[in-house]
Structure formats: structure tokens, C-alpha cells
Amino acid sequence: MVPQEEAYWFNQLKANAQGYNDRIDTIKKMLINKRGYYFEKPEGEHVILLYSGGVDSTTLIDLVASKWNAKIILLYIRRGSRNQQYEENAVDFFYDFYKNRYPDNIIDLVKIETDVPTRVNKEYFDKNRRKVMGYPMRNSIMWSLGVSQAVYLGEKYETTIRTVLVGSVGDDSDSPESGYLSVLSMSLHACICLGTWNFQVNAPLMDNSFKVGGMFKKDLVAYCRQNDIPIEKSRSCFEASEEPCGQCLACIHRMKAFQEAK
Q: What pTM does this model have?
């Protein structure tokens, strides 16, 4: 395909938004018709929580432990990113932090290593498309890894793990790869591929399952400050530098959230 200008991909985003909520409702109805619910709060259950060390998933850990009393297995994917060393430092820091805060709820930190996205033929990818739309299937690949780990670790801990939680927030609502439609479609996909209809993938920060009054990054920063969570120790920057670059998209969104939270 001939490389396109950014405007082309922004138009694709705009087109994708048309009927977005209707498609969400369609998947919800499919899940409800099959099993009676589209998402059940996994209170007291074992869950897999995909953890990146960033603001969103760091806040999600606290809410899942404190509001649902869930037994949390954190899953970090060493995916070959430039910032992996510093991202993983944040993951290790908050694993210890939450293990001390919620010793009965933080069960394990699992790390798996695989390139996401694959490097094969990556050099041909349209940079404008990447900037606007993200890497193709990046999040769904990681969510699928979370689903497979739920099956494996259910056997390890002799329990049923039916829930994979991801850190998408309201800021991601127009994202093809991170939006709620993508999350719900992974629930449907997992049920079909596993041959069992109790499985669920959800982004509780996006649908406000916790009823904490906000679903955006700025709300999460405010929540962490109110609850003595050292959110400044989280890592969002894409670059391979000890100090955040302040210029990448992740840094820009993070700084905006911290400023708005003040």
C-alpha cells in the first residue's frame, strides 16, 4: 500500500467513530444473550491484570485490590520496546509497593518475553499510520497473551481465572486498538476461541465500574495523590532514557494529566 498522509488516517479514525456505540451495544447483547451478562465484577476472584508500569494500569491495581478484593496476578510483557529497562523498573517498584499494601491480594508478577509487534517486515510500516493508529494488532496480541496466561495460571493456582483486566481509560475512547469496542470484542473472541462463555476481558477504568467519579488520566493522577500512591514513580515515556524525554506522545499526555490534576 502506498504510504498515506496523516490526514488520511485521521479520516479513518473519524469514519471508525460512526456507529461506534451501536457496535458496542451489539457485542454486549451477544454476550448477555449467551451468558446473562457482558461483564461481572470479579470480586474475591483471581484475575490477570496486564501491567505496563504506566499511570493507568498502576492505578488500576489499587482499585481492583481495594474495591473488589480480587487476587491479582500482574502480567508484564517484555516486548522489545526501547523503554523496556525503565518501564520494568517501574513495574518492579510497584509490585513491591502493592505487595506491602495488599499482601493478601497481590499474588504474583509474571513476566513473559516476546516481540510485540513482531520485527519481521516492520521496516515497511507506514509511519503516519503508526502515529495515528498505533501498531497493527499490538494491544490485542498482548490481551491474547493475557487470556492464555489465565488458562495456564488457573491450573497453577487450582482455580478458575476468567477475567483479564486492561488499563484503557477515557482518553483512549477514539483509539481503534485501545477503545472499549476493542476490549469487548476480545471478550467475545476469547469465549469463541476457548470454547467457554465465562471468559471476560474488560477495561474497568473506561466503563467506570468502580464509580470513583472519573475515567481519564487526570482523574487517576488525582486518585493516586488522594490515596498516597507515588504515581510519579510510574513510567510512560517511549524513549530509552532514564529521564522522560518530555516530547513523545506518552510524555505529553502524562504531563497534561498531571497539570490538570493540580
A: 0.93
